[in-house]
Write a structure and sequence with these properties.
The chain has 212 residues and is of the alpha/beta class. It has helices spanning 2-11, 44-61, 76-86, 127-138, 155-163, 174-183, 189-200; strands at residues 15-17, 23-24, 30-31, 33-35, 67-71, 90-93, 106-107, 115-123, 142-151, 168-173. The strands form three sheets. The protein has a six-stranded mixed sheet, with helices on both faces. It has a two-stranded antiparallel sheet with strand order 1-4. The protein has a two-stranded antiparallel sheet with strand order 2-3. Helix 1 packs across helix 6 (174-183), helix 2 packs across helix 3 and helix 6 runs antiparallel to helix 7. The longest helix is centred in the N-terminal third of the chain and has 18 residues, at 44-61. The chain starts with a helix and ends in a 12-residue tail after the last helix. Residues 98-102 have low confidence and may be disordered.
Length: 212
């Protein structure tokens, strides 16, 4: 499944691999890869693969799940679709409290003690999804873990998730994506090494321009 999802993301150009023309993330980090999983929603077959995969992971890894909670905004649609497939309630967690009305941060019904799985589209450094987990725990939920479409597998995210005592299971990851990209001739084997070098140490820009 991991390889199929990786190929799906490449096919719909939800992932761009540009080691010779890097992207700049909001954090200022230069990256050879940009992932826009929102495009999954626009392709019926890929959307079916992803939502079926997310449901499978939840059933296998988090069989006691009672509520699905999407991250705002990219995880909301996936949480809604999978919750419908699984006949479970869902909601989502805002990036911050609303500044009007009831000033909710958590939207949807959530009762203290309910077992929750967080649905996320992408794990990079892990900071934003851990904020979601913290908000749910503060509201009294028992967070069983996270399910996500893609993870870069950066050490920073691994360490943060471990420190927060929360499990993440992703449908696919950077190593599998790189493998698929080489097989499909999206990139050359040498480019794969450069992308892995970025993942292993994002602050080291020596991979740019093919430098070693």
């Amino acid at each position: 499944m991991s390889k199929q999802i990786a190929k799906d993301l490449l096919k719909i150009r939800a992932v761009f691999l540009r080691p010779d023309d890097p992207f700049t993330w909001a954090s200022g980090i230069k990256s050879p890869i940009y992932c826009d999983n929102r495009l999954v929603l626009s392709d019926h077959q890929v959307r079916t693969d992803v939502e079926t995969g997310l449901m499978g992971v939840i059933k296998e890894v988090y069989p006691d799940a009672e509520v699905l909670m999407g991250t705002s905004t990219a995880g909301i649609a996936h949480a809604a679709i999978v919750a419908q497939m699984m006949e479970l309630p869902m909601g989502y967690v805002r990036g911050g409290n609303k500044d009007h009305g009831r000033q909710n941060r958590i939207e949807g019904k959530l009762e203290a003690g309910q077992k929750v799985v967080v649905v996320e589209d992408l794990i990079s450094t892990g900071g934003s999804v851990i904020e979601v987990v913290d908000a749910l725990r503060e509201a009294g939920a028992e967070v069983l873990g996270i399910v996500s479409i893609f993870t870069y597998g950066m050490q920073k995210s691994v360490d943060r998730l471990a420190a927060a005592n929360v499990k993440n299971v992703s449908l696919t990851n950077l190593d599998t994506l790189i493998e698929a990209a080489v097989e499909e001739n999206y990139i050359q084997p040498g480019d794969a090494d450069r992308i892995r070098k970025f993942r292993d140490n994002p602050s080291d820009e020596s991979w740019i321009g093919g430098n070693n």
